[in-house]
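Exam revision sheet. Question 4 asks you to relate a sequence to its structure. Input first:
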Amino acid sequence: MNNIKITQLPSGIKVISEKITQVKSFSLGFWFNVGSRNENETNNGISHFLEHMFFKGTKKRSAKKIAEDIESLGGYLNAFTSKEHTCFYGRGLAQHIEQTFEVLADMIQYSVFNPVEIEKESRVVIDELYDIEDSPDELIFDKFESNVFAGNTLGMPIIGTEKNLRSFTQKDLKGFVKDHYTFKNFYIVASGNVSHNKLLKLAEKYITKEMISTYEDKRELKLLPASDLFVEKETQQVHYIIGRPTYGTRDKKRIAVNILSQILGEGSSSRLFQKIREENGIAYQINSFLNSFYDISTFGVYLSTNENSVYKAQSLIFEEIEKIKSKKVSEKELDRAKEYLIGNMLLSLESTTNRMLRIAQSMIYFNKVKSVEETIKKIHSVTSQEIREISNEIFDTSEKFPHGTLTRVILSPKNLLLQLVA
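Answer key, structure tokens:
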């Protein structure tokens, strides 16, 4: 951990760097602890829309100039928005870090949000929304989270609604930036052949705008009882999720849930893949998932299959759930899941961008950089008894609702929905 340095500037900005001398490049991220969870119904989608608009021109750069200033150096610039944070990041050769830093700083401080560009980009993002609507394997996850988090901002889609996207104005964008893009929400994170002292000097040199707000975010969460959701969609396949909310990123039990997910449905050797695809041949896509937020996660199983096989697939999923609840997993299977999880993590860390992402998320969620060794130790400490206990806790079918605490979301043509609902 000696190669990781953390400094909080007098302004409140946190600067975190990891020096890797054996590479010739860097990954630099400007992170803001704001996402769609910080929105409301009338401005849902504004965080993601802003992510686009920050690339559309500043007081001294056009959109084309922003791209040229990075790509002419062999670098790369991009961004993403999640429900809880937004990241603008660049990659490049070590000698070009100042140029990349300056471009990112210019974008996040001095974007003009030209009304003409707002109108054009709204059409682009609406096309992106339509792409999601046309991708049932993506749309169903939005529907699932909107159902399990109904009544909470966490349930709103990151991309927002067409109505909102058509209505955003320059005033709306500037107001949201003023409230949320602040020093206290701002993390500058770099991994690669970087100098921490140089990053501090760059921050002092290029972060010149006052980014202070008295606005206070409230990320409240109140869950409703589980309920099924049936979505009519003209598709060739039936798309199906069964799952529920569970422990968030900061909860110690989340690692056990992650291992449970590996055993149940992640990878070709998992129980569900072997049972449903290999033994019965009734689904091309079948996997479990764990999507984590600060205080909660969603955990479940997704599959797509034909309408004649959906009932059988559902029955087989419940059979595997009952098995993992009633009988402890073997040490061999548990060790395989742990090694799969650790191996994927270590392989991902061969990328400076992934390292930068991991460091930033660790700082945002834990206010420290958790070492890889610490994470591996926690993974190894999980026992088969814990997996059994967590399975019985998550897959509780003792309540009056037909599937206990589990929620089903089924996306399919109308004729089949009528059968499923009946």
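Marking note for examiners. Residues 115-133 form the longest helix (19 residues).
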